[in-house]
Every structure is written in structure tokens, then in C-alpha cells.
Design a protein that fits this description.
Radius of gyration: 17 Å
CATH topology: Growth Hormone, Chain: A
CATH superfamily: MFS general substrate transporter like domains
Shape: globular
CATH architecture: Up-down Bundle
Number of domains: 1
Low-confidence stretches: none
Number of strands: 0
CATH class: Mainly Alpha
Distance between the termini: 17 Å
Largest sheet: none
Helix content: over 70%
Number of helices: 9
Order of helices and strands: HHHHHHHHH
Length: 183
């Protein structure tokens, strides 16, 4: 197996990290004093929609993930979805209000609906038969790793003063998606 193979597998496995990170990060954001002051949550419904808007985006895009993968190829679909995730992450990080945060979460969710289905396909197609199961598993490992990173970074940034506490935390999700685009 060539270095190109390892780069392709590693880059696409990073999709799992940004999926898990975005799933895990929001719980800490909702409780940070600076985000409470900035977004001025009026009720639990607003908080609930911040969480569920991500899943809403994933729901709709998952219906088209196979079509996109067949039309543009697995690799190009993963890269394109990761570009869209970067946009969603930027919107979340720069959110000036709830609507912008909702839109950023929906956009990030659209990516997840695609990559959740396409990454295992890509891994199974490029992997040698004997290593296929372990390589396909990397996305799931990435999801759990991303959640762990989100919880750790939430904790580490919760002590920061002002909006940096939640903006830095949200910005971290952009890194693995950007690396996928580069890989």
C-alpha cells in the first residue's frame, strides 16, 4: 500500500472527527456563560433547535448522498462536502445571532448526511480485502474521537473570558474538515 493510500484513508477518516466534534461541541456551548449572554436563549426550544438543526440538515442530505457519490465520485463528494462543512463551521463560529447559528448548524449537518454514508463506501472501495473492515471502522473511531475532543476543548475553553470561550470551541471543528479538503 502506497503513501497515497494512507493519505486518502486518513483524510477521509477525518470526516468522522468533524462529525463527532460537531455532535459533541454543542452541549458545552449551550452552557457557557458567554454564549448564554451572546445568544440570549429565551427558552429550551431555541436551545433544542440549535442541537436538532444539525440533524435536520443531515436528514435531508442523506437522501441524496448516494446520488452525489455516483455522479461526482466518492472522493470528490467527500471533498465537496468538507468544503461545505468549513462554510458551516465558519458561520457557527462567527454567528452574530441565533439565526446565523441555526444556518451554520444546518449547513454542517448537510455535510454529515453525505459523508456519513459516502466515507465507508470510499474506504471499502480503496481498501485491500484483508484490511477492509478495520479501515471502514476508522470513520466510527473518528466520530468517538471527535466527541472526546469536543468535550475536552469545551472544558478547556470554558474558562476563557468573553465570546472567545465559545468562538474558539466552534472554530476547532473547521480544522479536520479543512485537512480533508487538503488531503
Amino acid at each position: 500500500m502506497s503513501s497515497r493510500f494512507y493519505i486518502a484513508v486518513s483524510a477521509s477518516a477525518l470526516c468522522g472527527i468533524y462529525i463527532g466534534y460537531d455532535l459533541g461541541v454543542i452541549s458545552g456551548i449551550l452552557t457557557m456563560p458567554a454564549s448564554i449572554e451572546h445568544f440570549r436563549w429565551r427558552n429550551d426550544t431555541e436551545k433544542g433547535f440549535v442541537v436538532s438543526s444539525f440533524v435536520l440538515g443531515a436528514f435531508f442530505s442523506s437522501m441524496f448522498s448516494g446520488l452525489l457519490a455516483d455522479r461526482f465520485g466518492r472522493r470528490n463528494t467527500i471533498i465537496g462536502a468538507s468544503v461545505v462543512f468549513v462554510l458551516g463551521g465558519i458561520l457557527q463560529t462567527a454567528a452574530t445571532g441565533l439565526v446565523m447559528l441555526y444556518i451554520g448548524r444546518i449547513i454542517a449537518g448537510l455535510t454529515v448526511g453525505i459523508t456519513y454514508a459516502v466515507v465507508p463506501l470510499y474506504h471499502s472501495e480503496i481498501s485491500p480485502r484483508k484490511q477492509r473492515g478495520a479501515i471502514v471502522f476508522l470513520k466510527n473511531l473518528g466520530i468517538n474521537t471527535g466527541m472526546l475532543l469536543a468535550y475536552a476543548i469545551n472544558y478547556a475553553t470554558s474558562h476563557l473570558k468573553g465570546k472567545a470561550s465559545f468562538r474558539v470551541t466552534l472554530a476547532f471543528q473547521i480544522i479536520p474538515a479543512f485537512l480533508v479538503v487538503l488531503g
